[in-house]
Write a structure and sequence with these properties.
This protein is mainly alpha-helical. Helix content is 62%, strand content 0%. It is a multi-pass membrane protein.
Length: 136
Amino acid sequence: VHIQTSRALMVISLLLGFFGIIMSVVGMKCTRVGEDDPVTKSRIAVAGGVLFVLSGLCTLAAVSLYATRVTYEFFRESTVPVNARYEFGSALFIGWGAASLTLLGGSLLCCSCPAQERRGQQYYRQSQPSTAREYV
């Protein structure tokens, strides 16, 4: 049962990460997908960050659930010899690293929301003043 639960959590994590990537790309300021309003685009990027955080939590839960089960089986007294028991493999450490990086990236995207006083402000390019131009 624990393997099926871990597998389901990893599939959910992959789907959340996929939709997080799509929403983050749409929410980037350099893309022309969606609206041109920077506030709306930043909200879309924050929603992508939330999806990344949820994906990282699902990955962390799946890997930790499996690691807990491996630890329980290893220290349980049974008739299975010590050399035939499961141990932590590199996949668990890669899973923990991936979960932490996904959580970090999602939290950075969540911090990209503009400040409250700048929400309605538009960004305009300033032209050079007329005194700075040289006439020949």
